[in-house]
Amino acid sequence: MGTVWTEEMLDSNAGPVPVRIYRGCALAKAPPLVLHLHGGAFLGGSLETGQQVATLLAEAGAVVVAADYTHAAGQPFPAALQFSFGLLGCLCKGRARLADKKSPLYVAGEEAGGNLAAGLALKARDLHMGGLQGQILLSPMLDPCMATGSFRKADMPVTNCRWVDGWNRYLGFASKACHPYAAPSYCMRLAGVAPALVVSAEDDPMRDESVNYARRLREADVVVHEHILAGQTGWPAAYSNYTGTQPEWGETVRGFFTEFFQETGTPSPLNQIV
């Protein structure tokens, strides 16, 4: 679909940060501006492994700023969240240069990146960050207990499980597991967060925590678009398998993105961090 990306540097509170910026061949006058955070279970991942989802977001009409937070993820919470929030602030203030001054702002992520995206939406609400129009969560890591039916069905190993190891690295200490920004599934106050697109799949180990979080958001009167893909998708590992050829589920997920942008894209007049 003619999506291209360039490498640039963003000036954040942490100093210059390398990012990839994806743009499709046909952008609206004020296209959605998306901060995208790749997966990797807080153990790895890169801009390359995030290319699949970033490309689909761009094909759906967005300008996508993809950031590599892995150096911050090597430290316990809240390092990666603080790093990502600084980048979100850069996009909020610099949207005119990156896209258009009226572009609606979104945060998106898959797996560990989905955890950060959900945490950023909560923090943006609490710190009165204006202009966040939506959060896009694909197979988000939300519950460190990993005791849901979908995890049991996936038959995850007791030892050498990447998500167990990733949660242990990210949380650092057990007391942090209760912090709502670290484990959004434990957040007791969800009202007022940005509208959410939550996507998972029947064979996704994170399916049940995705469904539960979507339900709780709706109960808090948050606008939620929820989709569960049928069949064998290989999620979340399949997100990182970018080959230049669209996966079977690619067109469907791109459609979810397009619909979400269309229905939530009226920008807020508040475009600054207060």
Dominant shape: globular
- Return residue spans where pLDDT drops below 50 for at least 5 consecutive residues: 268-274
Mean pLDDT: 90
Topology pattern, helix = H, strand = E: EEEHEHHHEHEHHEHEH
Q: Give the name of the CATH architecture.
A: 3-Layer(aba) Sandwich
> Approximately how much beta-strand content do the residues carry?
15-25%
What is the CATH homology-level superfamily?
Alpha/Beta hydrolase fold, catalytic domain
**The CATH topology:** Rossmann fold
CATH domain class name: Alpha Beta
Domain unit count: 1
Number of strands: 8
Helical content band: 25-40%
The biggest beta sheet, please? 8 strands, mixed
Task: Tell me the number of helical segments per DSSP (H or I, 4 or more residues long).
Answer: 9
The order of strands across the largest sheet is: 1-2-4-3-5-6-7-8
Radius of gyration: 17 Å
Structural class: alpha/beta
Quote the distance from N terminus to C terminus.
38 Å
